[in-house]
Design brief:
6 helices; 8 strands; 3-stranded antiparallel sheet; disordered C terminus; single chain
Length: 157
C-alpha cells in the first residue's frame, strides 16, 4: 500500500492544500488517514479512485464498466488506471501547450482539445495524459512516439 503525503496529493490532483482540507470536510474529497502524531496521508488507491470517478463524471459513464476516454486514458471497472492520473491546472496546461487561457477554452470546441474534469467546487483540471496525447497528435499524429524523441526520416538515394 502506497501512502501519499499532502505534497503528493497536491501534485497529483492539482488542488491546493486548503482546498483539499475544505472539500475533505465537506465530503467531496477523500478523508486523510492519521499516520501518527500530526502526520496524515492518503492511500494512493483512494486518490486514484477519486480521480477516476471525476473522469467518469465528466464523460457521463456509469460505474463498474471499463471506460477509455477519447484521449486514450483507460479506467477499469474498479476505478483504477494503468496510467498515471495526474491533473494539470490551467496555468500548467498553458505552460505545456504554449496556448493562452482563452485559446485553450476555444480549442475545446474548435480543435477537439481535451475537456477538463470537475475536481471539487468550481475547480477543474486537465489530465496530463490527455494533454500529452493531444500535443502528440498535433505534431504529426504519431502518439506512440515520446514527445522528446525526434522523428526519424529516411531519405532514399
Amino acid at each position: 500500500m502506497q501512502i501519499f503525503r499532502l505534497r503528493d496529493v497536491i501534485e497529483k490532483t492539482g488542488l491546493g492544500h486548503s482546498s483539499i482540507y475544505k472539500f475533505s470536510g465537506l465530503g467531496k474529497f477523500p478523508t486523510a488517514i492519521t499516520l501518527g502524531g500530526m502526520s496524515v496521508g492518503w492511500t494512493a488507491t483512494t486518490i486514484e479512485q477519486w480521480l477516476a470517478r471525476r473522469i467518469r463524471e465528466r464523460d457521463s459513464v456509469t460505474m463498474n464498466f471499463k471506460h477509455i476516454t477519447p484521449w486514450g486514458v483507460a479506467i477499469t471497472g474498479d476505478n483504477t488506471s494503468d496510467q498515471d492520473l495526474r491533473v494539470l491546472r490551467i496555468k500548467q496546461v498553458m505552460k505545456s501547450t504554449g496556448l493562452a487561457r482563452a485559446t485553450v477554452y476555444k480549442y475545446m470546441d474548435e480543435r477537439a482539445f481535451p475537456r477538463p474534469i470537475p475536481l471539487a467546487g468550481a475547480s477543474v483540471g486537465w489530465l496530463e495524459a490527455e494533454v500529452t496525447y493531444w500535443l502528440a497528435s498535433c505534431i504529426g499524429g504519431d502518439v506512440e512516439r515520446p514527445l522528446n524523441e525526434p522523428k526519424v526520416s529516411v531519405k532514399s538515394a
